[in-house]
Structure formats: C-alpha cells, structure tokens
Write a structure and sequence with these properties.
Elements: H1 2-31, H2 36-64, H3 73-97, E1 99-103, E2 111-115, H4 125-155, H5 160-183, H6 187-198, H7 203-212, H8 219-222, H9 225-231, E3 237-241, H10 248-262, E4 270-275, H11 286-297, H12 305-317, H13 324-333, E5 340-346, H14 354-365, E6 371-378, H15 382-388, E7 393-396, H16 400-416, H17 418-421, H18 425-441, H19 448-451, H20 455-467, H21 472-481, H22 486-495, H23 502-514, H24 521-529, H25 548-552, E8 559-560, E9 563-564
Length: 565
Amino acid sequence: MADIIGLVSSTCSLISFTKSIIDACAHYYKTARGANNDILSISSSVYSLKKLLENVQKLGNTFNSEALNPAYLPFLRCLEEHMTQCDESMEELGEALGVILESGGENPGEVKVKFLLKLKWPLKEKQVERHLQIIERVKTAITLILNSLAHIYNRAGMVGLQDRMAELTTGINNIGVSVRRILEDDTDEQIRSWLKENAPDSSLNHCMAREKYTTGTGKWLLESQTFTSWLNEEKRALWIHGIPGAGKTIICSSVIEKVKSLCNPNHGHQYAYFYFDATDKRKQVVSGLLYRLIQQLCPGGPFPGEIRHLYRTDSKQGIEQLNTKLFIETLVSTLDPLHRTFLIVDALDECSQKSEVMKIILRLARLESARISILVSSREEREIREAFKNDFQNISLDTNGHNADIAHHIATTIYDETHFRTLDSTLRREVCDVLGSQGEGMYHPFEVNALTRNRFRLVECQLDILRRLFRPSDVRRALKTLPRTLDETYDRILHNIPAEYCEYTRTAIQALLVSFRPLTVKELAEALTVDYEKELFDFKDRFWDPHVVLDFCSTLISLQRFIIV
C-alpha cells in the first residue's frame, strides 16, 4: 500500500511539473522567433505524457482503495522504474527551459515551480530530438504496462480500468491536434504583431499628404480620361510622373481616397498603398513594401494557410534573409479573382531597391488570375520609363492642369489662412498673381533646367516668407524681391538665419539626414543638446521649449503630426 501512495504522490508532482513545462513552451511560442515547430513538438509530446500520467494517477487511486492483487506487483515495480526515468527526463527538460522544481513547504509532497524564462528558445535541434525520443520511450513503456494491468484487471472481472484504457487510447490519438489548437489560439495575434513590427506605417505619410491637400487639388487628373479608364478597369496599370515637388504625393493621396470610396464591404473590393520615403530607411526597401501590402490585404484573421506558412518561414530566416519569392507568392494568394484589388505606390524614385520593386510591380500588373489595378507615382526617370513603357498608361503632372493646382493652392492659402485674412482684397489678389506667375514662370523656355524643379516647394517657401511679415508695406516689398528659383529661395533662408542659430541649424540638418527614421521635435531637441566635441550630454542644459528648433531652421524643416519633415 505504501508503494501505491508513493506512486500517486510522485505522479501528482510530475503532472504539476509537466503543466509548468507546457506553460513555458506557450511563453516561448509567443516570444521566441524561429523555433515554433520545435516548441510545438516538445509541448505536444509533454502534453500527451501529462494525459498519460493522469491515467496512472487514476490507476493508483483505484488500487489504493482496494486490496492489492499480488499479480500486479511486478508491473507496478516496472512502472515505478519508468516513472523515475520520466521524472529525471522532465527535470532535465525543465531546467533547460528555465522551469525549476523546488521541493519543500509544510507538506512533504508540496512542489513549487520557479520560472527563469529566457527570450530565446534554449534548445537546439539535436537536443529537441533527444528529449522527444526519451519522452516517447517512457510513454511507450508506461502505456504497455497500463495495458498489461488492464488485461489482468479485466480478467478478474473488473472492467472499469479497461474502459479507462479505451478512453486513454482515444485521448492520445487526439492529443496532437488538441495541443496544436491550444497553442495556435494566439497565432493570429502573433501574425498581427509580426506584421505590425515589420511593416512601416504608411498611414503617417498619407495623413501628412492629406493635411497639405486643398479642396479641388488634382481634380483635373481624377476627371481625366486616362484616369477614368484605369478606375473603370479598362486600363490595368497607370504611372503618374512629374518633376520633384510637383505634388505627386498629394495627388496620390487623393487617388487613395477615391479608391477607398469604392472599396466598401458590400462590393468586396480591397486596396493597399505604400509611400516610399527618402527620410525613412524602412520605407526605402523591398521588405517594407511587401510587409505593408500583405498587412493591408490581410488585416485581421483568421489568416489563411499561406500567411501562416510565410510567418513560420520568415520567423526562422529573419528580415535580413527576406524570401522575396515566397512573399510575392503569398501576396498573389491574397488577391481575390472575383473582386478588384487596387495597389497604389507613391514615390518609387525614392526607393533604394528600385529595380527589384519594378520587377515585382510588373509581375503583379501582368497577372491574369486576378483583377488587379496598379497606380505608381514617381519622377520621370529613364529607368522607370523604360520598365513601364509597355505595360503602363502614363499621366504627366507637367501640364496646364497642374498649373491650375498651383494657382488653386495659392488662392486657398491666401483667402483661408488666418494670417492672410488681415490683408485687404487688393493685396490678396496681388499676392496670388505674383506667386502664380512665379509658378508659371518656372516653365520659361530659356530656363527649363534651372526653373522646372520643385514648383510646389518653391511656392510653399515663398508663402512661408510672407507668413513672417506683419505689415502690408512689408508684404508689398517682399513681392518685388521674391526669389524666382528654389536655389535662390534656400540661399535667402540660410542667409536670414541669425548667426547664433547657425550651429544649431547645421547640427539639426545633419541629424535629420543620418537618422534611421523621421524624428520628433523632442528627439531633435535632444540631439541639439549633445556636445559632440566633448561627447557629453547635460540633461540640465536642455531647451526649455523643444519647439524652438523649428525657429532655428526657419522653413527648411516643418512639423507634421509631431514628426519633423
């Protein structure tokens, strides 16, 4: 009887310990990358062992309440030996996983479990195989012993244990499926977190573009025959191109808003967009584009098998070994052949892996198995024009319609902004005429190379100059001396920066140029607090107001949604 009591006690402790190992595996499944299959295998094997031990516990309780048949003794001794092996195996596995068994307390059989979990899955492939083999040997031996005991028990006319063995067999057959279902309950959330971690947020670029948008901008393009053909699926791919500063991003944001209105749940259409960005390294590479498109086309869950397979593969390889082919295949698998998919990509010329991205775009544009509509915007570069010439319709922003956008932007600013409302109607018209002619003058036939750059940016800089004036006479004087090119405008801005601000301005621009991502005002202010010669940072010498850095740099930088641009 004492042996049975010991067996039940040790089995109870083992069951508690196996549960802790399963909990540890669940922790690693959520936090460790690149070992999900190994974690599932260990957890599944331990889980089935736990269910087996629960049946051993039931057996012990049954024997403990009845007179023990001497025929059982050899089997019970053998079972005890294998239970000892099982205990040693679980203790070794638990120690590797950071699950420490502590005996003690007021009750002799009390067990305390201590977790020392690590961020990385601690077992190598060979170690996993060894632990699995040991667990399987123990499970096989215990199962054989239990079956033998059941046979003897049944022959004695007691069928209860046989019924338990039948339940055990059925349970073991379903254990693998059950464990995977339990552990994969959180997989969708993990995939969402994985995509969120790796997909750069283009919504920030979109919001900034919409803030710069004025009603009516780009209307000529959205009503053009070429764009309408693309929208109505008569044309599959459209390329919008123009000079730097021509307003491509703002017009692209208008296209996105137009497409959004078509992609309501009732129609079943879907869309995704991406803004390449020279100020953010994550938004300059292929991986950023692919992660973001998949994130938008599969926003929730449950995720299809292709996405789960991509997640498992990518978790092992990491972003440094991006499997572009698998990503594209997965992206294609998300496209609905019955409903339309709109893909909008802005500022392709700002991508550092342009050739690879163009191959991906062309492959998608040539898909026959999906109703896909692609729109790309960029500068008019020869490489892009050559790549797109056979597959893309194109719209140039260097048109009269674009001149109308500039005029509309100027008028909206002058008549709507609080600062300019104090001007009388005559002076407001004069401002609109002068700035509007500046924009048109950039197309002077003898000054094309010097004057066709950054038209929108030139007008915006000139408006910033006027925003700093507070008397009608100063505005009229400024209109007569406004620089005609962007280079001249920047020269004047730099010349007007006070001498005591020059070092701050230089450091701020350098920090923005080398930063891995766009900086907030507070982050830029902290960068200016550092003494780079002495390599010191005095937190007591911080700026009272971080926003003064915007004054240092005049109109060379601006703030959009707390981000420096």
